[in-house]
Amino acid sequence: MTDTQSQPTGHAPQTVAPDPAFAAEAVASAELYERAAADRLGFWAEQARTLLEWEQDFTETLDWSGAPFAKWFVDGRLNVAHNCVDRHVEAGNGDRVAIHFEGEPGDARSLTYADLAREVRQAANALTALGVQAGDRVAIYLPMIPEAVVAMLACARIGAPHGVVFGGFSADALRSRIEDAEAKVVITCDGSYRRGKPTTLKPAVDAALAKGASSVTNVLVVRRNGEQVDWTEGRDVWWHEALAAAPEEHEAQAFDSEHPLFILYTSGTTGKPKGILHTSGGYLTQAAYTSRNVLDLKPERDVYWCTADVGWVTGHSYITYGPLALGATQVVYEGTPDTPDKDRWWSIVAKYGVTVLYTAPTAIRTCMKWGEEYPGRHDLSSLRLLGSVGENINPEAWSWYRRVIGGGKAPIVDTWWQTETGGHMISPLPGVTALKPGSAQQPVPGIVAEVVDDAGNPVGNGEAGYLVLTEPWPAMLRGLWGDPQRYADTYWSRFPGMYFAGDGAKRDEDGDIWLLGRVDDVMNVSGHRLSTAEIESALVSHPKVAEAAVVGATDETTGQAVVAFVILRGGEEEGPETIIDLRNHVGQEIGPIAKPKSIMVVAELPKTRSGKIMRRLLRDVAENRATGDVTTLTDAGVMDTIRAGMSKST
Ligand code: ATP
Ligand code: MG
User: Which sequence positions carry the modification called N6-acetyllysine (predicted)?
Assistant: First the structure.
């Protein structure tokens, strides 16, 4: 380890040099940055041609003449499902496991690439038999079972864009998404398992279709747990019966590189979720390229596990499309991390010999709260690389993740990206980059990002501003479904010619990028701009704190005041001394101006179903307003509990 002066929270500043043994085996090399900088479009053309199989080569890498609507790999034709499945079988790797499935009750099954190819072809035939044609939309409402991946690939195979809706969403959320996409078919299942109990999904589909969503002609139902479900004759079809009746042969037709692949809604931290549209060739190129170079996946060597749900973009790019395009082996787990006990994840890592683990900071902080005893029960020595996505990973959580899960030596890739970006954008390259806990550091080779001031000019090192992307990238969204104007307004109007991500960021003395949270969340206290992420990291670095969320509330004297919500670690006292202690700690770590005006100890924080803290709802509480849109909240009751506690404490 070498020291630098770049840590914003005042911890012992440090960078972690790549381990030479890891670097020797790593896929990525420093040379990638040089090649991409010398000829960016040529670099992407090379990635597209080497990582994917095209039925017809493209004639132009990027057509940006219709900006902000991009066309990548113009005139190229490919079949996405063929690229993710069949070609690996054709190359002689049909016996390689594609998916090790682990059900929550402990049932397990492994699908080879040959198995996956057969199921995808049959499912494609079954969808075609239901009248689904290229361009028709299919809604997928499934838990984390292999059929979710099969369904996505079957849609891709016949050119029918899918819209995956998280299996935990309500009938109303499902209906609004089906209606927005005007889906023709819904693929669902009877039910799943959660915390040791059977759940049901089909009733939500029935309820959604009873209230509207009249575009739907059929519901394809996977049998997962055997729960009794209502049946609408003529509309509902069992998946296993439809597949059994379908031929095993299916000719994959090639589609245009810009053929729509899927529509997916954002998680909703800033308001009503947006329907993001992604297309085929550029998206798959970047998903495969980053799976290779950022996640360091080598199909012959790795057992990969991404704990995300297919209802989120991470489940699209880093479960279904990227890893399968490479021909990698991965684990898919159906249930919760604490069933039957809090060591379930670690037992899965040991059972399958997982080498690369990709998860979210919220999960890491939960495991920290539970304690080291649980990972300590298992041999985690197979893990050689760890990834983080979705939020800032606080330096404290980073260090715990590396020490307790990564055996003190696995590199951590902190990947910044969005549903809109389709693939990783800012991240260290494992084995190449000297890591800085808490910073996503540099754009991946081929991507150009900047931190700019209010006028759109790049800030200097040591300064903060807005994160923008100054050049189009292959996996970029091609618009918002059905609303091209909102696409232009939301992302391209704040800084002309640049994509505005909506996140604040800062460059440290070395020029590395630190994400500071949503710009809507940035606080202004007596003229000082304060970042939610920095104050939260300071709070989490206190030994008594497990999780923290910080918001700015309107204040008569200071403009805004810092209000913090904290969850204490198990067994910690919440008396007035603790509050004083925490305020002083933030003062020491960042400066007196950052000391929270009030700190509230809570049992839980409002989170989206993808595990992100919903600060806008906490701001509603802090400013005594009615709570805004909660449709993507995991548990709406959390807000009532917080409000009740708030009235008691003040
Ligand atoms: P909405 O746009 O509806 O408010 P959302 O932005 O939460 O929802 P996503 O597309 O899932 O939906 O999340 C992208 C956002 O997640 C980024 O803009 C950023 O704020 C945050 N994020 C993702 N990865 C990281 C990371 N590694 N570090 C910091 N923040 C991250
Ligand atoms: Mg967003």
Answer: 612
